[in-house]
Amino acid sequence: MLQQTQVKTAIPYYINWLKNFKSVEDVAHTDINVLLKAWEGLGYYSRCRNFHQACKIVVEKHGGKIPTSFDDFIALPGVGNYIASAVLSIACNAKLPAIDVNLKRVYSRMLGLKNDTKHNNMRIQKYGFNLVQGPRPGDFNQAVMDIGSQICHPSKPLCNICPNYKYCKAYASKKPDQFTLKKKSKKIETKKMIAALIMIDGKCIIEKRDEEGLLGGLWEFPTIETQATNSEKINALFQNRFGKQIKLEEKMGSAKHSYSHFKVDIDFYLFTASKKLKSEAPSKLIKIDEFDNYAFSKINHKLKGIINND
């Protein structure tokens, strides 16, 4: 849950998760749609799917016990070098450096590194490895994580209270802000989309996204990526997808949302149809008040808010 997510955001999800799924076996034997609903709003849903698969593997191949060898642990879906090193150093006292963004920043400043290059990352990895060869590698990793999150901030680090300042080349330079290993920021793309509230006898169509990729396994209002703004063209796009029996009635509103690598700008239109439609994706016909029974992304919750306001 803490991958790409702040602690304060993850805590209520974590507490709720433990109330509902008390063991690895509970997660492994629970339907993924139930898990995605519990994860709803936390984002980065591939983490939930990977965790589900990892728990299945732990139950089926390891007798329900978390593997303690690095090779077995890192083979689990969703586990990379950082997670494997962090968990095994803390839980199993493995002498491995858990290089997350905070440790990377602390070590880069201590080494006096400014550029995010392969060579510098190797230096950081070696430096971190040497530092955890003592008797408490897990405690050491956690201590440096805390220094990175609470003291060694990306901008305006609190060098005057840092226990490492005597050994820090960035501090010695008197310009520690310059040592952050920042990569060049890329221009964030905005994707233009049209979402449809297709009503049939008091119910609306929702579709399930493919299990792979962004928001995999979540439900959504039928959505098409397009720059179209003309009502006739929009109507034609959805008729090509669902058939001539649907009809565009009106634009209901718009919503925006930002993901890690792009933004979405969605216009929301009301359509009507007189009979059940065939959908290319797995679909359901539900009442609006059944919306909360399914796992939707945040942007679809925003679209639902437009319906409520109407």
Question: What is the radius of gyration computed over CA atoms, rounded to a whole number of angstroms?
Answer: 24 Å
CATH topology-level fold name of the largest domain: Nucleoside Triphosphate Pyrophosphohydrolase
Mean pLDDT across the residues is 92
Segments where pLDDT lies below 50 for 5+ residues? none
What is the number of strand segments? Answer: 7
Number of domains: 3
Notes on the protein architecture:
This protein is an alpha+beta fold and 310 residues long. The chain folds into three domains: 1-79, Hypothetical protein, domain 2 (Endonuclease III, domain 1, Orthogonal Bundle), CATH 1.10.340.30; 98-184, Endonuclease Iii, domain 2; 189-309, Nucleoside Triphosphate Pyrophosphohydrolase (Alpha-Beta Complex). Helix content is 42%, strand content 17%. The protein contains twelve helices and seven strands. Strands 1, 2, 3, 4, 5, 6 and 7 form a seven-stranded mixed β-sheet that branches. Helix 7 (101-111) crosses helix 9. It is globular, with a radius of gyration of 24 Å. 26% of the residues are buried.
